[in-house]
Design brief:
alpha/beta; globular; 8-stranded parallel barrel; 5-stranded antiparallel β-sheet; single chain
């Protein structure tokens, strides 16, 4: 997530080419649960490492049971269960922005385990947008969409209160994904319609105010090639609508590791977003021919360091938030060597997949943690069988931990970036080591 050269095999967090790829068949991003943020759910394997990620989809909102309604506005039953808490009156006392995303299924983790002292903002992920420019509230038949229900529910009241009490801001993530043909056409219909763009901007601002939160992250990915200017216009409309509600509301835009069809100059110009959240992950995935890091600091091809360099050609450092993954990838490989060739997924040899940090760390402890001196990240290897009668094969797991993340936090500080981000808080598990890495790099409040 060298330089902008990329291929159709790029994955979530990297859009793949400087042109629109949304019409391609389900590729790495769609295969990996449809989002540049969400690790893929792997087929079961007897080695037990490719654990499924939480049940909601990646760049799609939590699974719904039907199609969204077209009527704007929320009904009375869509109101929060209790009045929102007051937002923090001053920014959190960190040296950098630290923006942590969480899924509805991870609210208990955020309530009871997340260290708010190392988080300047947390982002609920997320609510999708319809082709008509409405927030997706209901499914066919009138029932509340599961994502919307979580957003307006009593547990979210508690999350907001806990964050605000700690001086941590809360933002809503609004999504629109174009990784398949249906999503592509929906995005084009929304973005190409000025009335729909205006409607969505006003609904976002109104919802941020109604819920008593502190801003919004706009996660539209990828941007259809015909809609670059229209997307920038949407972001500017959201900025205007937020400013009309209350001064100081935050606006960030999530972008892929390759810039592709995002107008970074326009998105970070006065009157647009406060910052870009770069999804600097999924540089390797289930599609990869060789095993490797999900967020490589260095390598022969495009890497995280290249990503920062490329973005700095288009905006200033204080406009960039470098998002980091709390997950890794596992493959069956042809040998035990680092960056071995991967085997195609099959019943005989097992399947590739994504592994959340807490599981990855346990797996590495069981098989022996190794260090990849090229890509600057941890990995491990072992032999297993996909079934009792299946052939023996090597499995390799590459992931991020406190050491590898710390090196990328050093990059954030060295380049003077606005800060870092986390996908996702709930993948961290119970240990303090990832929070400690944040605290060492950026302090706490």
């Amino acid at each position: 997530m060298a330089v902008s050269a990329c291929s159709s095999s790029a994955g979530p967090g990297i859009s793949g080419t400087a042109t629109d790829r949304a019409t391609l068949p389900a590729g790495p991003i769609a295969t990996a649960v449809g989002s540049s943020r969400f690790p893929a759910t792997a087929a079961p394997s007897t080695d037990g490492t490719a654990q499924p990620t939480p049940p909601s989809g990646p760049t799609t909102p939590p699974a719904s049971t039907g199609t969204p309604e077209a009527t704007p506005g929320a009904s009375p039953s869509s109101e929060p269960s209790s009045p929102p808490s007051e937002p923090p009156t001053q920014p959190a006392g960190l040296s950098k922005v630290v923006l942590g995303f969480f899924l509805p299924s991870q609210m208990d983790h955020v309530l009871h385990q997340s260290d708010m002292g190392v988080l300047s903002s947390i982002a609920f992920f997320g609510i999708s947008s319809t082709s008509g420019g409405n927030l997706h509230r209901r499914v066919r038949g009138g029932a509340l969409d599961s994502g919307w229900k979580a957003w307006i529910g009593p547990k979210m009241d508690q999350v907001i209160a806990r964050a605000h009490d700690a001086g941590t801001k809360v933002v809503l993530t609004v999504t629109r994904f174009s990784w398949n043909s249906e999503g592509y056409h929906t995005s084009v219909k929304l973005l190409s319609n000025q009335a729909a763009r205006s409607r969505l901007a006003h609904q976002i601002a109104a919802e941020v105010t109604r819920r008593g939160v502190d801003g919004v992250n706009i996660d539209f990915e990828p941007i259809p090639s015909s809609e670059t200017d229209h997307f920038t216009d949407l972001v500017r409309r959201v900025r205007t609508a937020l400013d009309g509600e209350r001064a100081g509301l935050e606006l960030t835009v999530a972008t892929t590791g390759y810039i592709a069809n995002y107008d970074i100059e326009g998105l970070t110009a006065p009157g647009a977003a406060d910052a870009i959240y770069i999804m600097a992950y999924h540089y390797s995935g289930s599609w990869s021919n060789r095993a490797g890091a999900v967020s490589p600091l260095h390598r022969k091809s495009y890497d995280v360091t290249d990503t920062v360099t490329e973005y700095l050609k288009h905006t200033t450092a204080n406009k960039l938030i470098l998002g980091m993954p709390y997950y890794g990838n596992v493959w069956s490989t042809t040998s035990s060597q680092v960056h071995s060739k991967t085997r195609p997924g099959s019943r005989s040899y097992g399947y590739p997949g994504s592994v959340i940090y807490s599981t990855a760390a346990q797996t590495a402890a069981a098989h022996g943690r190794l260090w990849d001196s090229t890509e600057q990240g941890p990995w491990t290897r072992w032999q297993s069988r996909a079934c009792g009668s299946c052939p023996l094969t090597w499995r390799q797991l590459y992931y991020e931990d406190a050491q590898s993340l710390g090196l990328k936090y050093d990059l954030v500080n060295a380049r003077g970036l606005r800060g870092t981000g986390i996908w996702t808080l709930g993948f961290a598990g119970n240990g303090p080591e990832l929070d400690d890495a944040l605290r060492e790099a950026f302090g706490s409040h």
